[in-house]
Specification:
The structure holds two protein chains of two kinds. Chain A has five helices and two strands; from the N terminus they run βαααααβ. Chain A is mostly helical. In chain A, α2 crosses α3. The longest helix of chain A is centred in the C-terminal third of the chain and has 10 residues. Chain A is globular. By secondary structure, chain B is mainly alpha-helical. In chain B, α1 runs antiparallel to α3 and α4 crosses α5. Chain B starts with a helix and ends in a 6-residue tail after the last helix. Classes of the chains: A mainly alpha, B mainly alpha. Chains A and B meet through α3 of A and α4 of B.
Protein backbone atom coordinates (compact mmCIF):
# COMPACT_ATOMS: atom_id res chain seq x y z
CA UNK A 1 0.00 0.00 0.00
CA UNK A 2 1.25 3.50 -0.83
CA UNK A 3 0.29 6.84 0.61
CA UNK A 4 0.15 10.52 -0.31
CA UNK A 5 0.09 11.47 3.34
CA UNK A 6 3.27 13.56 3.20
CA UNK A 7 2.04 15.60 0.21
CA UNK A 8 -1.42 16.14 1.69
CA UNK A 9 0.06 17.09 5.05
CA UNK A 10 2.39 19.60 3.41
CA UNK A 11 -0.56 21.09 1.51
CA UNK A 12 -2.35 21.60 4.83
CA UNK A 13 0.77 23.20 6.32
CA UNK A 14 1.00 20.69 9.15
CA UNK A 15 4.06 19.14 10.71
CA UNK A 16 4.19 15.45 11.60
CA UNK A 17 3.84 16.41 15.26
CA UNK A 18 0.74 18.55 14.55
CA UNK A 19 -0.95 15.77 12.61
CA UNK A 20 0.02 13.17 15.21
CA UNK A 21 -1.49 15.26 17.97
CA UNK A 22 -4.72 15.77 16.02
CA UNK A 23 -5.27 12.06 15.38
CA UNK A 24 -3.94 10.92 18.76
CA UNK A 25 -0.81 8.96 17.83
CA UNK A 26 2.94 9.41 18.26
CA UNK A 27 4.91 11.47 15.73
CA UNK A 28 6.97 8.36 14.93
CA UNK A 29 3.79 6.63 13.79
CA UNK A 30 3.07 9.38 11.23
CA UNK A 31 6.71 9.20 10.16
CA UNK A 32 6.51 5.44 9.63
CA UNK A 33 3.22 5.69 7.71
CA UNK A 34 4.68 8.34 5.40
CA UNK A 35 7.77 6.22 4.85
CA UNK A 36 5.65 3.20 3.97
CA UNK A 37 7.01 1.22 6.90
CA UNK A 38 3.73 0.91 8.75
CA UNK A 39 0.20 0.42 7.45
CA UNK A 40 -2.37 2.10 9.69
CA UNK A 41 -5.64 0.55 10.77
CA UNK A 42 -8.83 1.54 8.95
CA UNK A 43 -9.86 3.80 11.82
CA UNK A 44 -6.56 5.66 11.90
CA UNK A 45 -6.53 5.91 8.09
CA UNK A 46 -9.99 7.49 8.14
CA UNK A 47 -9.02 9.94 10.89
CA UNK A 48 -5.88 10.94 8.97
CA UNK A 49 -7.85 11.48 5.75
CA UNK A 50 -10.46 13.55 7.61
CA UNK A 51 -7.81 15.78 9.22
CA UNK A 52 -6.25 16.37 5.80
CA UNK A 53 -9.61 17.13 4.16
CA UNK A 54 -9.24 14.21 1.78
CA UNK A 55 -10.87 10.85 1.22
CA UNK A 56 -9.25 7.58 2.30
CA UNK A 57 -8.80 6.66 -1.38
CA UNK A 58 -6.94 9.93 -2.04
CA UNK A 59 -4.71 9.34 0.98
CA UNK A 60 -3.97 5.63 0.60
CA UNK A 61 -3.90 3.48 -2.51
CA UNK A 62 -2.62 0.13 -3.69
CA UNK A 63 0.40 -0.25 -5.96
CA UNK B 1 -7.44 9.77 41.32
CA UNK B 2 -5.91 7.53 38.64
CA UNK B 3 -2.19 6.85 38.93
CA UNK B 4 -0.44 7.04 35.50
CA UNK B 5 0.30 3.52 34.27
CA UNK B 6 3.95 4.25 33.50
CA UNK B 7 4.56 5.63 37.00
CA UNK B 8 2.77 2.67 38.62
CA UNK B 9 4.81 0.18 36.57
CA UNK B 10 8.09 1.97 37.33
CA UNK B 11 7.50 2.33 41.08
CA UNK B 12 6.16 -1.22 41.50
CA UNK B 13 8.92 -2.65 39.27
CA UNK B 14 11.64 -0.98 41.34
CA UNK B 15 9.95 -2.00 44.59
CA UNK B 16 9.72 -5.58 43.35
CA UNK B 17 13.42 -5.66 42.33
CA UNK B 18 14.55 -4.36 45.73
CA UNK B 19 12.21 -6.70 47.63
CA UNK B 20 13.15 -9.69 45.49
CA UNK B 21 16.88 -9.24 46.06
CA UNK B 22 16.38 -8.59 49.79
CA UNK B 23 14.14 -11.65 50.22
CA UNK B 24 16.51 -13.79 48.17
CA UNK B 25 19.45 -12.77 50.37
CA UNK B 26 17.48 -13.28 53.59
CA UNK B 27 16.28 -16.73 52.47
CA UNK B 28 19.90 -17.82 52.05
CA UNK B 29 20.21 -17.72 55.85
CA UNK B 30 18.58 -20.66 57.64
CA UNK B 31 16.57 -20.46 60.83
CA UNK B 32 13.56 -18.41 59.75
CA UNK B 33 10.17 -19.30 61.16
CA UNK B 34 7.41 -20.61 58.89
CA UNK B 35 5.63 -17.23 58.94
CA UNK B 36 8.84 -15.40 58.03
CA UNK B 37 9.57 -17.79 55.17
CA UNK B 38 6.03 -17.38 53.85
CA UNK B 39 6.39 -13.60 53.99
CA UNK B 40 9.79 -13.67 52.28
CA UNK B 41 8.59 -16.08 49.59
CA UNK B 42 5.31 -14.36 48.72
CA UNK B 43 5.95 -10.74 49.79
CA UNK B 44 7.50 -9.63 46.47
CA UNK B 45 4.35 -10.84 44.67
CA UNK B 46 2.40 -7.77 45.82
CA UNK B 47 4.46 -5.11 43.99
CA UNK B 48 4.76 -7.48 41.02
CA UNK B 49 0.97 -7.49 40.68
CA UNK B 50 1.11 -3.67 40.70
CA UNK B 51 3.77 -3.82 37.99
CA UNK B 52 1.57 -6.05 35.81
CA UNK B 53 -1.42 -3.71 36.23
CA UNK B 54 0.81 -0.77 35.25
CA UNK B 55 2.30 -2.64 32.29
CA UNK B 56 -1.16 -3.59 30.97
CA UNK B 57 -2.28 0.02 31.36
CA UNK B 58 0.81 1.20 29.49
CA UNK B 59 0.10 -1.15 26.59
CA UNK B 60 -3.42 0.29 26.38
CA UNK B 61 -2.17 3.88 26.41
CA UNK B 62 0.22 3.54 23.46
CA UNK B 63 -0.82 3.92 19.83
CA UNK B 64 -1.26 1.07 17.35
CA UNK B 65 2.28 1.12 15.93
CA UNK B 66 3.93 1.03 19.35
CA UNK B 67 1.56 -1.80 20.30
CA UNK B 68 2.72 -3.74 17.25
CA UNK B 69 6.37 -3.10 18.14
CA UNK B 70 5.71 -4.38 21.67
CA UNK B 71 3.86 -7.45 20.38
CA UNK B 72 6.70 -8.33 18.00
CA UNK B 73 9.23 -7.81 20.81
CA UNK B 74 7.30 -10.17 23.11
CA UNK B 75 6.97 -12.74 20.33
CA UNK B 76 10.72 -12.56 19.63
CA UNK B 77 11.64 -12.70 23.33
CA UNK B 78 9.32 -15.63 24.00
CA UNK B 79 10.47 -17.57 20.94
CA UNK B 80 14.18 -16.98 21.54
CA UNK B 81 13.91 -17.87 25.23
CA UNK B 82 12.02 -21.05 24.41
CA UNK B 83 14.59 -21.93 21.76
CA UNK B 84 17.47 -21.37 24.16
CA UNK B 85 15.86 -23.26 27.04
CA UNK B 86 14.90 -26.20 24.84
CA UNK B 87 18.39 -26.37 23.34
CA UNK B 88 20.04 -26.09 26.74
CA UNK B 89 17.79 -28.81 28.13
CA UNK B 90 19.01 -31.22 25.46
CA UNK B 91 22.60 -29.99 25.81
CA UNK B 92 22.39 -30.63 29.54
CA UNK B 93 21.09 -34.17 28.97
CA UNK B 94 23.89 -34.76 26.48
CA UNK B 95 26.41 -33.61 29.08
CA UNK B 96 27.45 -30.34 27.44
CA UNK B 97 25.93 -28.01 30.06
CA UNK B 98 25.40 -28.12 33.80
CA UNK B 99 21.97 -27.62 35.31
CA UNK B 100 23.47 -25.21 37.88
CA UNK B 101 24.62 -22.93 35.05
CA UNK B 102 21.39 -22.94 33.07
CA UNK B 103 18.49 -23.40 35.49
CA UNK B 104 15.02 -21.78 35.48
CA UNK B 105 16.58 -18.89 37.44
CA UNK B 106 18.20 -17.75 34.20
CA UNK B 107 14.88 -17.59 32.39
CA UNK B 108 14.00 -14.10 33.68
CA UNK B 109 17.20 -12.33 32.55
CA UNK B 110 17.04 -14.11 29.19
CA UNK B 111 13.48 -12.93 28.62
CA UNK B 112 14.40 -9.38 29.61
CA UNK B 113 17.51 -9.24 27.42
CA UNK B 114 15.70 -10.69 24.41
CA UNK B 115 12.74 -8.35 24.96
CA UNK B 116 14.90 -5.21 25.07
CA UNK B 117 16.88 -6.41 22.04
CA UNK B 118 13.72 -7.21 20.11
CA UNK B 119 12.21 -3.84 21.09
CA UNK B 120 15.14 -2.08 19.44
CA UNK B 121 15.07 -4.29 16.36
CA UNK B 122 11.47 -3.87 15.16
CA UNK B 123 11.56 -0.28 16.41
CA UNK B 124 14.29 0.32 13.90
CA UNK B 125 12.29 -1.48 11.26
CA UNK B 126 9.44 1.00 11.58
CA UNK B 127 11.68 4.06 11.79
CA UNK B 128 12.02 6.36 8.78
CA UNK B 129 13.89 9.53 7.97
CA UNK B 130 13.08 12.54 10.18
CA UNK B 131 10.46 15.06 9.07
Amino acid sequence: MRTRLKVLRAECGLTQADLAQRVGVARQTINSIEGGKFEPSLGLGMRLAKELNATVEETFFLD
Amino acid sequence: MRIPSAKLALVCGLAWAVLFITCRLLLDYPGHSLEARLLLAFGPTVPLIGFFIGAIGMSRDVDEMERRVQLEAFACAFGLTLLLIATLALAQRAGFAKYEDFSYGHLLPMLYIFYVGACCWPGGRYTCVPD
